[in-house]
Amino acid sequence: MAKLSRTERRKKELRRRILQVLLLLLFMACVLVFAVGGVISGRQKKAEEKKKKEAEIAAEEEDLSRKRQIIEEADFLAEGYDYDAAIELLEKQRGYDTDTEMINAIARYKAAKTNLESKDVKDVPHLYFQPLIVDPDRALSTNHLTEESVANNNAWMTTVDEFEAIIESMYDNDYVLVSMHDLVTETVDENGVTHISANKDLKLPPGKYPYVLSVDDLSYYHQYARMGFADRLVLDEDGAVKCEYTGSSGETETGDFDVVPILDRFLTEHPDGAYKGARGLICLTGYQGIFGYRTDISYETGENLTDYQESWLHANPDFDREEEVARAQEIADALREEGWEFACHTWGHISLSSDNMDTLRSDQLKWQTRVGSIVGSTDIMAFIPGNDIEDWHPYSYDNDAFAFFKDQGYNLFLCVNSSDKYWVQLQDNSYRMGRIACNGLQMWRNLNGDTRFNVFEDYFDVEDVFDSHRPTPVHQ
Q1: Do the Cβ atoms of 202 and 179 come closer than 8 Å?
Q2: What is the spatial distance between Cα 150 and Cα 266, in angstroms, rounded to a whole number?
Q3: Distance between CA atoms of residues 250 and 242, nearest Å
Q4: CB–CB of 199/178 below 8 Å?
């Protein structure tokens, strides 16, 4: 083999060293790649672990939030004395029997339930109202209305301020709102006959007392337009029932301007003021529609219209009865969902008796087909003030009007009795209840010491409630 020259040996050595350097650099690069990859992989793993941990924490927080929300819902039910529903709600939750908070909540409900006592359904007061005066400066002033209109408003209506003070006082005096149907048990025998008995399961804590509240004529009659009353019931963006009201300057507002939304708001804030979510009873006529909507067929046929109705139709040439009925139906559905109930108050706001059965039957047919078809069936008949189908004697089937109403499915009957703190007749075939008028005339009589009308003392202080805007004396 030929011997390499010095120059060639140097070149060869240089190439070898370069190769070594390149190999070293390649090795270092590989090490670096693996190292960086490991760091990245470690970071990714840590990121994934962190993300997983955060997801676990979020899930735990969501579960905790949901549990707290369910317990709040149960507490709300329990505040309204529906302990069974509160217990049932918690016991439906997975793992409730190992969760300390739920176990403690259930124990609280059961303890509170054992403290309840039955209430006598014969000792229950019933307060009733008309649509409320929003603006006394209009409704009670001869600067805006005739003397006759002011006198009627002053005598028969209640102002918003008075109503708010009354329900606040009822609450402060430990009265709890109940439904008419909370008072009785209705059973049907094998012959299809309905029997009425006292509800023994109406139980409240000691020192709490049940009462019933109703509102009449929630139709927003034409004659009260622009008098300082609400115009109609509407739904807000959350689906809650509110009132539409036109102010003195012609501006339209939506808010709590009448019995329904005011009571709803109060009882939402004070759930212990109502038994199992009870609300009031709405006693409806139908001749001018319901809830401020002109639902009656007479608006379409033009038959037997009053001057007020004709004027309204003239001012509303685009009137569509089907649309009015649809909107009233939405209101009725929302009211039932909130706990309100309905009663027949006669279609034409008329007196009924066995002496004129033709009128009674005709009026009832109109109510069932024109009002009941929208709000649903009811077994409550609320006679107009000053009217009943019997005197103080109990109802019997010898009374043709009573027999007719029973045949129509009515079991609960309301009259007006403003001279007794409560008045009830309970029979196997009916529950009859007197209602106290909470209006200007009744309160004025009380203020002036008429002992026949001293019925409010257990419920509210008339002197504190009576609206100073009222012109006095208040005349009938």
Answers
A1: no
A2: 29
A3: 19
A4: no
Q: What distance in Å separates the CA atoms of residue 435 and residue 454, rounded to the nearest whole number?
A: 14
Interhelix angle 357-367/400-407, nearest 10 degrees: 20
- Sequence-separated (6 or more) residues with CB below 8 Å from residue 5: none
Peptide bond into 261 cis (omega under 30): no
Exposed, middle or buried, 108 (CB in 10 Å: 0-12/13-18/19+)?
middle
Angstrom distance (rounded) from CA 177 to CA 31 = 81
Q: What is the pLDDT of residues 353-404, one digit of tens each?
A: 888 999 999 999 999 999 999 999 999 999 999 999 999 999 999 999 999 9
Tally of CB atoms within 10 A around 60: 10
- List beta partners, residue 437: 128
Start-end of H helices in 99-258: 100-114, 136-139, 147-156, 160-172
Matching residue, tokens 């007006």: 416
Task: Report the alpha-carbon distance of residue 47 to residue 157 in Å, rounded.
Answer: 70
Report how far residue 177's alpha carbon sits from residue 77's, in angstroms, rounded to the nearest whole number. 15
The residue to which tokens 């077994």 are assigned: 379
Rg (CA), the chain: 36
What's the count of helices (H) and strands (E) in the chain, helices before strands?
15, 16
Dig out the tokens for 36 from the structure: 């960086």
Instruction: Give tens-digit pLDDT for 156-180.
Output: 999 999 999 999 999 999 999 999 9
Q: What is residue 3's DSSP assignment?
A: P
Structure tokens at 395: 């109802």
Residue 6 DSSP SS3: helix
Tokens of 5: 């020259």
Q: What are 420's strand-pairing partners? A: none
Q: Give the residue from 139, 138, 170 showing the smallest Cα distance to 153.
A: 139
Q: Which residue has the tokens 């303890």?
A: 111
Two tokens, residue 70: 């369910």
Give the tokens for residue 389: 């189908």
The DSSP bridge pattern shows strands 126-129 and 430-437 to be parallel
Q: Which two tokens stand for residue 50?
A: 């962190």
Q: How far apart are CA 226 and CA 191, in angstroms?
A: 53
Angle at CA 333, nearest 5°, toward 328 and 338? 125
Please state the pTM of the whole predicted model: 0.87
- Residue 412: pLDDT band by 50, 70, 90 thresholds? very high
